[in-house]
Amino acid sequence: MKFKEKQKTRGQPIVSNLRKTLKKPPEVGVNDVLAPAVRGLWNFPRLLALRLARMDSEKGPAARKPLRALPIQPIIEPSPMDIQIATLCDFAADYNGKLVISGTFDTLAARAVPVVHPACALAMRFCFTPEDAGRHKLSINIINEDGESLDPNNMPIEPEFEIQLPKNVPFLTRNIVMNLQGLRFPEAGIYSIDIGCDGEILVRLPLRIVQVSQGPNGESQMS
Q1: If 122 and its partner were Cys, which of 6, 33, 178, 214 is the partner (CB 3.0–4.6 Å)?
Q2: Of 32, 61, 90, which closes a domain?
């Protein structure tokens, strides 16, 4: 009997014997691979807390100090003086602290150059705070496109003034009206009125000078 069984075994194909010997490896899913990592991430906060508690117990109660956030110190830079209103106009006046302005403009038209404007006013309204207390120098200059002063002999105009605010007063407003007479503009183009204080320009007002001519039907045309 044993001899016959051995013969049967010897008679079987080699491929069938290999199929029995080599077993198919088990299939591994994605969940089987990611599950241990996910469990590790889920338990990470608890393990970290246990580790920190063990470190605190090893150092002793003296080493346990509460963590305090450091205060953030804001960077405060000095702001320039606040000028609320600045404009060229035909007329301006201070009436009991109220600034009266009439006929603001930014363009002068003439048929010939040079242009001489007989009279106008520069109206300004400042707002002072306690940080502005002290003596200051105002600067007013009219310049052309090349940065040259319109009247080098008389400009810039630099009046000095002093600011003093009463106690418990958060701000103080003041109106300044400067009358300008006989301004002479040698040619057409863009001019600027620079208003500054203590060497710093606060406002630059553009002023356009245009030359016009009369058309065939009597209308004005810019040349």
Answers
A1: 178
A2: 61
